[in-house]
Amino acid sequence: MFTKILIANRGEIACRVIKTARKMGIATVAVYSDADRDAVHVEMADEAVHIGPSPAAQSYLMPEKIIAACKATGAQAVHPGYGFLSERAAFCEALEAEGIVFIGPKPKAIKAMGDKIESKKFANAAKVSTVPGWLGVIENADHAEKIAGEIGYPVMIKASAGGGGKGMRIAWSQSEVRDGFDRARSEAKSSFGDDRVFIEKFVVDPRHIEIQVLADAHGNALYLGERECSIQRRNQKVAEEAPSPFLDAETRKAMGEQSVALARAVDYQSAGTVEFIVDKDKNFYFLEMNTRLQVEHPVTELVTGIDLVEQMIRVAAGEKLAIKQSDVKLNGWAVESRLYAEDPYRNFLPSIGRLTRYRPPEEGQFGDIVIRNDTGVTEGSEISMFYDPMIAKLCTWAPTRIEAIDAMSEALDSFVVDGIEHNIPFLAALMQHPRWREGRISTAFIAEEYPDGFAPIVPDADEKAVLASIATAVELLRRDRLDRLGGRLAPHSGALKRDWVVKIGEDYLSASILEGMISIPIEIDLSIEGGKALTVSSDWRPGDLIWQGKVGKSSVTAQIRPVANGLRIAWKGMSVTARVMLPRIAELERLMPEKVAPDTSKMLLCPMPGLVVSIAVVEGQEVKAGETLAVVEAMKMENVLRAERDLTVSKLNAKPGDSLAVDAVIMEFA
C-alpha cells in the first residue's frame, strides 16, 4: 500500500480524497494555484505544493508541474479527482514513465472510453446499444447542417473531449445547428483544448441513468447499482439519487451486466461510470463512459456502504477486490443536491465573491437519517471566477425515497450561505415539487417546469400563516429582549400587546396572541387572519440564524436574517420579507409611497461577472429581436446575450477582453 499520495485537484473532491487517505493511514500532498493559496484542501493535506497562477491552464492542467510536485514530496501515486487531468491518457502515461502510479484506469481504457467519438465506435463494435449519430470528424458548420438533416431533428452537438455540460448544444432545427456548432467548438477548445465535436440524435424526454462499475487488475469486475441524474440544467447535473425510482430489477440487471461487459472489454481497472439515456419504455442507450470518479459518487456510497475512493486506491496498489457481485446490496435511498454559486433568479448565472457566512447542517446519523456534506470551502473562502461554481454536495440517506427527500428539504433549509448568490432556494423548491417527489422526471424537467426561469415562490394562504407566525414570535422575543436591557428609563414595548399586523411581501395579515407568555423557549397560541389557533413553539434566541420549532402540527426549519425594519425568512425555497407592526403603524405604513426602480430598458447589462468574448454589433447598427449582441464567458461557459426586441445600438461601453461585474452596462440603445 502507498504511504503518500498526491491529489491533482482542488476543492471538495480534493478534500474528499484526503479524508479517505487519512482513514487509510496514507499521507497526502495537495497542489494549489494562486487563487487557492488559502483553500481548505491545502490546509487539510499533510503537505502542499504551489503549482502556478490562478487559471487552470497554467496550474492544474499542467502535467509537468504535477509530476515535479510528486518528485519533490516523494508521492508514490496521484489521485486525479474529476475534471482537470483525470481523463488524460497522456498524463497517465507520463506518470507511469516516472514510476508514479495513477489512481485510476490504465491509458488503454482512458483512450478507448475517454474520447466520446472513439468510445461510441468501440461500443458499437462491442454490440452495446448506442444512440444513432455521426461519429466521424465534422469539418465545418455546413457539414454539421448536412449531418443533422440526415439524422433528423432534434440533434445533440457535443464536444468529443467534453464533460460537465461544457461544449454541448441541442439543435431543434437547421437554423440552430450553425450557431450551436460554433459555440460547442469554442467552448470545447477553451475548456479542453480539443475542438472536435460529434452529432447524435437527441432522445426526447429521456432519463439520464448511470451505472457505477468497479474493477481490479485481476479480472474481477462488478456494478454497484445505478444513479438517477435526470435533473439537469444546461446539461449540468443539479440533483441525483440512488437508486432510480424508474428502473425495475430486470432493467437494472441488464444495464449493470452490459456496463461490466464494456469495462471488461477495455480491461478497466478502477472505479468508473457507464452513462445511459433511458426512454419512457425503459429502452437504454450507451451515452459515454467516464473513466474517473463521478461528482455524484456519494449517493452510491450511501446506499451500498462501499467507499469508492478507498477501492480506487486499493486497486491502484494492486490489491484484488474484496467484494463480489453477490455482496452488493442496495440499502435505503440517497439524494444529492449540488450547491452552486449562481443566482437562480437571474437564470442561474454564476456568482463570485467571499463566503461571509457558511454554516452547513451538522453531519452524521440522526435516528434513521444520515446527513453528509462534501465541500471544499469554509466561512471566508473566496468563490473564484477561474473554476467550477460548485460550493458543496449535500447528501441525505433514509430508509425510503420520500424520507430522504424530506430530510434533504430540512437540511437545505438549515444550510446558511451568505456573501454570494446560490441555488439553495431552487433546490429547496425542487424538494417540494410534485413531479420530483413522484419520480416523474426527465432531463427536460427544469426546462418544462421553469420555462421562464426560476422565479421567487409566492406562498399560499397556509404558508403565509406559517411565515407570519414565525415572524410574530421572532418580533415578540426581540422586543422582550430590548425591554430587559439594563439602564433603560422605561420598557421599550410596555405591556404585551395582543393584536399585531404582519406584512408578508405586499400583503398585510392580522396576528392575534390568544395565549402564552413571551419567554425562551417560546410557546404561544396565535390566530392569523382570524383563523383557528396555531400553537407556535421554538427555542430560537435573538441572533440565531436558524429558526426551528413547530407551527401548529408542522415542524418547521427556516432561516432568519434581519433587514431594515423587519426580517427575511427563507423556507422551502420561499424567501419573504416580513414586518411585524402594531395596527396603527401598519395603517400609516400603507400610505408610504412605493420606490420606483430605475429604467434600464435601453441598456444591455452584464448578467453575471465574466469576460467579454465578443461584441457582435457596432454603434449605430440596427438589430432585430433575437440577434446576438455579445458573448460573455463565466466559469468556462459561454453565454450568448441576444436582443429582446428591435433596437438601435447608440453606444458601446465594453470591448472583447474586458472583465465585467454583474449589471455592468455593456451597451446602450437609442
From TrEMBL:
Catalysed conversion reaction: propanoyl-CoA + hydrogencarbonate + ATP = (S)-methylmalonyl-CoA + ADP + phosphate + H(+)
Species name: Mesorhizobium shangrilense
Pathway(s) per entry: Metabolic intermediate metabolism; propanoyl-CoA degradation; succinyl-CoA from propanoyl-CoA: step 1/3
EC number: 6.4.1.3
Pfam families: Biotin_carb_C, Biotin_carb_N, Biotin_lipoyl, CPSase_L_D2, PCC_BT
Superkingdom in the source lineage: Bacteria
Keyword Cell membrane in record: no
Annotated ranges, domain ATP-grasp: 120-317
SUPFAM superfamilies reported in the protein's UniProt record: Glutathione synthetase ATP-binding domain-like, PreATP-grasp domain, Rudiment single hybrid motif, Single hybrid motif
Alphabetical keyword list: ATP-binding, Biotin, Ligase, Lipid degradation, Lipid metabolism, Magnesium, Manganese, Metal-binding, Nucleotide-binding
Domain spans labelled Lipoyl-binding: 594-670
UniProt cofactor(s): biotin
Start and end residues of each Biotin carboxylation domain: 1-451
Name this polypeptide is given: propionyl-CoA carboxylase
